Amino acid sequence: MKSILIITSYFPPETGAASNRMFHLANGLQNQNYKVSVITPLPNYPTGEIFPEYKGKFKCTTIENNITIHRLWLYASNSKNKFLRLFAMFSYSFSLIWFFIWNKIPQTVIVQSPPLIVAFTNMIFLRSKNRKLILNVSDLWPIAGLELGAFKKNYSYRLLEKIERFNYKKADIVLGQSDEILTHVRSLIPNKTSYLYRNYPDFEVAELVLPYPSEGKIKLVYAGLLGMAQGIFKLCKQLDYSYLEFHIYGAGAEQKKIETFILNHPELPIVYHGEILRTKLHSELLNYDITIIPLLNRIYGSVPSKIFEYARLGLPILYFGGGEGESIVKKNSLGWTAKAGDYEALNKVISCIKKSELTLEFKKNIRKTALENFDFKTQFKTIKKLI
């Protein structure tokens, strides 16, 4: 039985796209009779605090679904202070090095990036040990940070660019979750072996029904991270509520601002439901007409995994982020798109959607497209060949 190690900064019980991506990868490998182990920090995302059941621990090793999971100490923080966040990344890197020194490392290692510095640590240390390194790139940093306004083009940014290039160069194989990521990698390292590996979901789907009457306002839902990149707080302020009611699930940096806004504007039909388990969320989402997938700014290389997850549920998508994600929604007739950052255009699109159009047949067609084109098991065959 071949052994494989996955190194990631996010893993369940943490929530979010990165956590789900690495869980499905680990589970998929385990189901194909690989001996899978995972190294990840003590759970802390997105709150920036170690989860209560893990507090006070330096290391925690468990076996879950026949996967050995090593959770290592880090200084947890989601502070806006760049130095604190940088220290958090370094602390995890130090824990990784300590683990590498005292433990046997499998010949094949899959490394998640970003964070760049954590990936850099793995590339330096494990490359010297002659391990086969597969770099799984889910977002382009530091480019994404620049587009989000987190970075400026200064010495620090140029240093991160050098680290990024180093990571691509030292990886034996680069997996990118979008065509834009692969294009960027090949522009830096032209002969690098690279493959498209999207974040397709792997879960059983419930029977589609229409549990609500067709009249009334459109029930629009957002579920996911309430972070700066998604811009849900601004969305709450900019939406035209003449045609819809807005429901929100999730947690993150903007949560308190959103809750305060709702409290100060009781006349607006906005409901915050908090954060719930992903399995329960899937059944909850079937009660809504449309889901919105927004990005505050168009981010090169970014394709939100919610596109594939919600299409599998049969939930019509209103995509508001531009780029490759917009092209996927249009090409596969998964719903509607609005020009990224243009709230007037967004409200115009919403005003043209008739609730009578949101039929059971429409939703079944979306699910059918997802099952045929966004299949985890079919895509996974490529990974097996690489490993």
TrEMBL record:
Pfam families hit by this protein: Glyco_trans_4_4 (PF13579), Glycos_transf_1 (PF00534)
MF-aspect GO terms: hexosyltransferase activity
Keywords for the protein's UniProt record, in alphabetical order: Membrane, Transferase, Transmembrane, Transmembrane helix
InterPro entries in alphabetical order: Glyco_trans_1, Glyco_trans_4-like_N, Glycosyltransferase_grp1
Transmembrane helix listed as a keyword: yes
Membrane-spanning ranges: 83-102
Domain Glycosyltransferase subfamily 4-like N-terminal: residue ranges: 18-187
Organism encoding this protein: Xanthomarina spongicola
Annotated ranges, domain Glycosyl transferase family: 219-368
Name by which UniProt lists this protein: Glycosyltransferase involved in cell wall biosynthesis
Database matches in SUPFAM superfamilies: UDP-Glycosyltransferase/glycogen phosphorylase
